[in-house]
Amino acid sequence: MAGEDDGNTTNGRRRRRTRRSAVRLSKLYSYACGRRPSVADDHSVSRIGGPGFSRVVMVNAAAGEPPAAADLLQHQQQITATTNSISTTKYNLFTFLPKSLFEQFRRVANIYFLLSAGIAYSPLAAYSSSSAIAPLVIVLVATMIKEAIEDWRRNQQDTEVNNRTTQVFQQGGDGDGWDGDAAWSFRDAKWKDIRVGDIVKVHKDEFFPADLVLLSSSYEDAICYVETMNLDGETNLKLKQSLEVTSTTLPDDDSFRSFAGAVVRCEDPNAHLYTFVGNIEIDGQQHPLSPQQLLLRDSKLRNTDFVYGVVVFTGHDTKVMQNSMKVPSKRSNVEKKMDRVMYLLLFSLIVISVVSSVFFGIATGDDLQDGRMKRWYLRPDDTEIYYDPNRPAVAALLHFFTAIMLYGYFIPISLYISIEIVKLLQALFINNDIHMYHRETDTPAHARTSNLNEELGQVDTILTDKTGTLTSNSMEFIKCSIAGTAYGRGITEVERAMARRKGAPVIPNPDNMDKGNNSGIQQQQHILSSSDSEGNNDKPAVKGFNFVDERVMGGNWVNQPRSDVIEMFFRLLAVCHTCIPEVDQESGKISYEAESPDEAAFVVAARELGFTFYKRTQTGVSLRELDPSSGKQVDRSYKILNVLEFNSARKRMSVVVKNEEGKLFLFTKGADSVMFERLSGSESAYREVTQQHINEYADAGLRTLVLAYRELKEDEYAYFDRKFTAAKNSVSTDRDEKIDEAADLVERDLILLGATAVEDKLQKGVPECIDKLAQAGIKIWVLTGDKMETAINIGYACSLLRQGMKQITITLETADIIALEKVSDKTALTKASKDSVARQINEGKKLVNASSGESFALIIDGKSLTYALEDDTKDMFLDLAVGCGSVICCRSSPKQKALVTRLVKTGTGKVTLAIGDGANDVGMIQEADIGVGISGAEGMQAVMASDVSIAQFRFLERLLLVHGHWCYSRISSMICYFFYKNITFGVTLFLYDAYTSFSGQPFYNDWAMACFNVFFTSLPVIAMGVFDQDVSARFCLKFPMLYQEGPQNLLFQWQRIIGWMLNGVACAVIIFFLSTASLQHQAFRSGGEVSDMATLGATAYTCIVWAVNLQMYITVSYFTLVQHVCIWLSIALWYIFLPVYGAITPSFSTTYYMVFVEALAGAPSYWVVTLLVTAAALIPYFTYAVVKSWFFPDYHNRIQWLRHREKAKAHPDPETSADVELSQVLRQFSVRSTGVGVSARRDATAVLRHLNVDYSQSPTPGAGVVVVTTDR
Amino acid sequence: MDSHAAGSSSGGSGDGAAQPRRNSRKPKYSKFTQQELPACKPILTPKWVISVFVLVGVIFVPIGIVSLRASQQVVEIVDRYDDACVPAGVTDKLAYIRNDSIPKACTRNLTITKDMKQPIFVYYQLDNFYQNHRRYVKSRNDVQLRDKSKASETDNCDPEAKTVDGKPIVPCGLIAWSLFNDTYNLIRNNETLSVDKKDISWKSDRDHKFGSHVFPMNFQKGPLQGGKILDSKIPLSEQEDLIVWMRTAALPTFRKLYGRIYVDLKENDTITVQLENNYNTYSFSGKKKLVLSTATWIGGKNDFLGLAYLTVGGICFFLAFAFTLLYLIKPRKMGDNSYLSWNRATLGR
Predict the structure, then answer these.
(1) Disulfide-capable partner of A1134 in A300, A373, A949, A1105 (CB 3.0 to 4.6 Å)?
(2) What is the widest separation between alpha-carbon atoms in chain A?
(3) What is the CA radius of gyration of chain A?
(4) What angle do CA A1138, A1142, A1145 make, to 5 degrees?
(5) Phi/psi of residue B174, each to 5°?
(6) Chain A interface includes B73 (CB < 8 A)
(7) Which of A211, A465, A917, A929 is catalytic?
(8) Rounded distance between C-alpha atoms, residue A114 and residue A96, angstroms
(9) Are A1000 and A1113 in contact (CB under 8 A)?
(10) SS3 of A204, please?
(11) Residue B95: closest CA among chain A residues belongs to which residue?
């Protein structure tokens, strides 16, 4: 830390004061992103002023003299009208009521209730209007309150953002206005007050308040670094650079005082993040602007002390706001099915209403025949239209509406709101699960949308991204091959997996092994690296570096046979990159800003191996090298002459440097496929060995790069530089090709140094998690951008693939296709490719169909995928893919990921879950039924688009197997229960109505009915939806097969729904007939009083409340105190309601006035009837439940039995404990026998196939058995 | 814990995020949030199931027996008189009952089958009379019944709301209009048994629903007469027949309390009933019955309750038995690991 490190603290200050001189990145980035006037730009510049490009921004209009005419001013006023305040709320004070009501009434059920409320105000009403409206109002108000709270939260967030401050160039307010110069300065202003045309100053690590055009920065060449994580999720820094004309005239605060003003003309607000067309007019001269000058709102200034910019788009005009798409609202399958059940209920409601109307019509028509009245007490001779015996058809028709309203209790009005409450609480449980909290990143799981909770329990296929999801996206330099010698003793996950696969006798626990390895080597390291300023503790704490080899570490490479090559190798690592070092002033530690974690890993590796890169200047890099001859650290600097950037076509990156002796070198690193052909023929002594090493590394799941260099002669370089510069400066369309050509001039005849291997580490627990998920019968597809070899290796490492699996590979990397590519006849190539893909798919299918019992893995690359996803082949492809155990799509683009997801979703009709971490996964996350974002690591984009976010892939296991299963089983039980209780209630109303000659007379009192759903029955159901656990978390994880209840929808199949409904009907019939038969016409009290409508109704109601609530005790399998309280509270509420309501003035309580206190409470028969009817109503279901659980148990029943058995036999009974053991042996059989997990799926299905056969022979075939479909 | 920062020099984006955070977002541990609340997990073990059934049976059968006995202790004499009270030879019963000029007196003799202890309840029973018809039930105005000053409130009462000349009827509506008007006079051994008609209605009705200052007005004078005529000098709260009638019955067959007799009746006593058969049930072929009944703790005579209890109890015993049998015959089935499908593979030898 010599040079600038003399005064640690002053240094920082000095740096701030002086204008920071940074690398001439225009040079460094000459290849990729330097200023280049492209042809397209020229076109668009000419469009300025035309439609879509009409924005004119007067820079700092308030200060400078308006340079233009009045119409421009007016325009300016117009666009400044759009303030920079944003609002993401759905409603405001005035729109809330109408808008939220509108939202509410988009639900079918609510419309129905509104309709019946409307009927309630007509003479058709079956009961009083207010009691008919009350439940609807309660439900609506509750939902609206929830909406309001959510919106309020959004509003608060907006306010927080709007009130952030930033510095704006403006006039001071306090009286010194005479002196114009003094008054104008950069002052803090709130974001919301920023207007178009304002000049703002943004400091390091601040967010840009609006879309700005960069004017100048603290760097001399007016560059700045921007982190766009919030926009696209990429963590690497983007470089922006202002126009020279602005950067030179506006270097600091003071310069703005004399800034005469400028006019920016540019495109209108739009959502394209990566385009910007405009120009800036300064002193009458126009200069074109490009995205290179645009700083987007919500991105962050990094590594740059400050920048100046002029605001061009504010508030909702900014690109990020324009871009903020509406997250597609997803509905779960259960809810969709619930809607269908609702329709069924509506239908049956209509049917019984019609039946009721017909009978009513007949009875009404009968009342008056030939002028003779039958039921004279009804006065059929003098009626309104509703009972007119002369027009029975009309009366019946009108009666239909009455019936619809009366039997409306079929439709559970509170179901939607109850479900929402329950889901909200379930989401809370997910958010609070301590087992899904990731300590390292301090992120808990977060259910961002709660309406998909139960869908988590039904996932059939998981589509996962690889990098950052399965792997942790932290690259670690782990091995290298230099001059034909392989270095690095680290062992990768994949190697471990391979070792296991090959049946290594003892599989050491990876943790132990790490420890064992490290302790030995660490010791050495300690001794050797005593000079190392880092002072490593006893763990490889260096991020990105996991290289262990005493032969080269700590300077020992000097003694290696080819130390010259090794030296060059390390030097290349330290020089050939685009990283920027950051020296911590206090500790002197150096960290690096890199475009990708790979690059960082290289520089870190070089540093750790003795080639510390510590400074980058405009023209060069400085290293602290270990000099092999003297054995001392020496500072050397290299002049960087050119950087030939990496891109995906070139697959390599080079720098041209001049060392201190004036020698010119070309350093190149790149993919083996492009590098080997560029090696010089003569210098390939260890070429084969290196190639072999590279293959080994690839097998071990590592990312490899080949390193090579060459020395350039002066004249050779001069020639290249001329051509290269010319190419760069050309504006023709073939500019890129020219640059390529120029680069090709020097990137040849390279001398091989060796190869590097970087491990993209698997996230913790990934293989185990995938294994569990596979055991749960979930199919896992990996969609990755990686190349095939890496993908396959990762597949092995994370136990998606296993040794015995047959791999079906579909690729276009075949000789004939490659040959065709060279000819570059587009149509022929397309056709040939397509045919080839179709043929490969067909072959694969044949293979799959032909074999039995074997499992297959499908591996397809991106190019083939393009063809496979075309309309005519995609079904075939899906067919094949579904037939395979594992599917890996490599080299797939974000769009392909989304397409594959859609294909699986629509093609199989099953629930898909997509999980990813980066911006490239957004499409797939939104497309899938459930999107899961990995939070904490990369950007927020994936998380923002997701429905649930978790910190680590392994949490998926708990999220699905435990929470998913619970939520699914809870919600489906809850919905069934709702239908049950409402049908019970509704059917008694219908039955009673039959006894009133279908006149539409309700059995119960108005308000008692209105309270049924809200007070007397809702609590226990909600408690069940929140707390019930059919199987404890431990057993959920222990028996992943249980999860299959979800994907096969066993708990919410029509059988079960209808069964519950029938149970409701049965209950209603029992309750109605038993209570009416018990309390007939005879006296029901010792005082001789007979029962009337009120007493009989209240008695039946009592029975319903009891039966419906006690039913809970048979249904629920997990009773906490809460549930007991809810059940008994509901029953108690009824007994509180009756006397309280009955005590209110009779004008309100009408028929129930004193009904309990005076009539019922004192009548033993009331209590006796209650007991009888309640018990009788419950016995059928109880019996059914016993039979089902004994003879046709569901899978969860079986586990309950097992748990019971385990608990009961706490003291070991030899026979049973053996049984338990056996079950465990069997459970683990799949895992143990094959070593690597995946097998699990196949073996699980094998066991089950066995099972199914077994069942078909057993006396109780099929029923209730979890039949797991095999993969195919 | 927090010492991670020490040895690391960050290679990646250099975020330096390893600092310990003051307010960690780590969820707080509680049994509630972790869904680990203590709970009982009932499972339908044979022991449980069988004992539940036995328990229900054990409770229900005695209740059934007690109820049945109570019901059987009730002595009930039912006499249907609607047909019998029409003079022989009348073919059009409707014309007969509608004709006011024909005297409707009728005499019936009842024999007491068993000793009846006082109080003995006198009921009339109507069959096939839809007091619970919605039009009928709604046809009343509670405000008017309660409040003297609200006499003109006759909403819902059509067509018996107002007289032809527009005066409000009190009590209005079909229920009051169709008030039952047969009368019974009970005679034993030429001695009239006094029928006490006090307190035959619910006290709350008398006190709160029917005003003590509300008197019948303009009641039952039209050409079409429904039922009984009310004495306009007696306030509604004392017109107990009306109050009883206006408590609408739940089902089309119903009894209403007519009065009480505070005399013990002996077995084989003959009661002569002099009745006036005024009420028209002929048009809708309803039956009229006179009922004399005693009551026990459970009320009047209804064996159903007791029998239902016995039946349910019996079913429970049967189920208990059946499940026990199943348990004994196929013991392996229950609570066995073989329930776990994983085991089936090996058990299916």
Answers:
(1) A1105
(2) 130
(3) 38
(4) 155
(5) -70, -35
(6) no
(7) A465
(8) 19
(9) no
(10) coil
(11) A372
Length of chain A: 1272
> Omega into B38 within 30° of 0, i.e. cis?
no
CB pair distance less than 8 Å for A1200 and B43:
yes
The nearest alpha carbon in chain A to B49 belongs to A1186
What are the structure tokens assigned to A1220, written together? 């338990």
Answer whether A590 touches B (CB < 8 Å). Answer: yes
Is residue A406 a contact partner of residue A924, using CB atoms and an 8 Å limit? no
- ipTM comes to 0.90
- Is A465 designated active site? yes
Q: How close does chain A come to B26, measured CA to CA in Å?
A: 6
In whole angstroms, what is the distance from residue A408 CA to residue A243 CA?
A: 71
**Who's near A239: CB < 8 A, 6+ residues apart?**
A25, A29, A33, A223, A224, A225, A226
pLDDT of the residue at A1097: 93
How far apart CA B177 and CA B182 sit, in angstroms, is: 14
Which residues in chain A have their CB less than 8 angstroms from residue B135's CB?
378, 383, 386-387, 999
Cβ contact A386–B300 (<8 Å): no
Which residues pair with residue A463 across a beta bridge? A781, A914
Provide the percentage of residues in chain A whose pLDDT is more than 90: 14
- From chain B, the residues in CB contact with A371 under 8 A are none
Q: What is the pLDDT of residue A651?
A: 76
At A987-1022, the pLDDT tens digits run 999 999 999 989 889 999 888 888 888 889 989 999
* C-beta atoms of A1147 and B334 within 8 A: no
**Tokens at residue A1256, please?**
């078909």
Is-contact A1044 A1154, C-beta < 8 A?
A: no
Which chain B residues touch A1153 with a CB distance below 8 Å?
A: 204, 208-209
Asked whether the predicted pLDDT for residue A1166 surpasses 50, the reply is yes
Q: What is the mean pLDDT of residues A840-869?
A: 84
* pLDDT over 90 at A1243, yes or no: no
Spatial contact of A266 and A53, defined as CB atoms under 8 Å apart: yes
Q: How far apart are CA A810 and CA A1087, in angstroms?
A: 89
**Closest chain A CA to residue B139:** A378
In angstroms, the CA A642 to CA B176 distance is 109
Q: Do B13 and A1247 touch (CB under 8 A)?
A: no
3-state SS, residue A1226: helix
A604 touches chain B (CB under 8 A): yes
Task: Enumerate the residues of chain A whose CB falls inside 8 A of the CB of residue B80.
Answer: none
pLDDT at position A1048 over 50: yes
- Residue A278 tokens, joined: 């405009």
Identify whether the C-beta of residue A1250 lies closer than 8 Å to the C-beta of residue B345. Answer: yes
Facing residues of A341 across strands?
A: none
**Other C-beta atoms lying within 10 Å of the C-beta of residue B227:** 21
**What number of residues does chain B have?**
349
C-alpha distances (whole Å) from A786 to each of A418, A498, A757, A1197 are 46, 20, 15, 44
Instruction: Identify the CA nearest to A431 among candidates A445, A421, A420, A450.
Output: A445
Residues contacting residue A383 through CB under 8 Å, at least 6 positions apart: A389, B135, B159
CA–CA gap between residue A847 and residue A1242 (Å, rounded)? 17
Most confident of the following: A379-388, A541-550, A571-580, B59-68 = B59-68
- Which residues, 6 or more positions from A751, have their beta carbon under 8 angstroms from its beta carbon? A679, A680, A683, A708, A709, A710
> CB-based contact (8 Å) between A1082 and chain B?
yes
**Residues of chain B neighbouring A128 (CB-CB closer than 8 A):** none
Tokens at A935, concatenated: 């939070």
Estimate the share of chain A in helix, then strand, then coil, as percent rounded to the nearest 5: 55, 15, 30
- Backbone φ and ψ for A246, nearest 5 degrees, come out as -85, -35
B222 vs A: CB within 8 A? no
Closest residue of chain A to B208, computed from CA coordinates = A1146
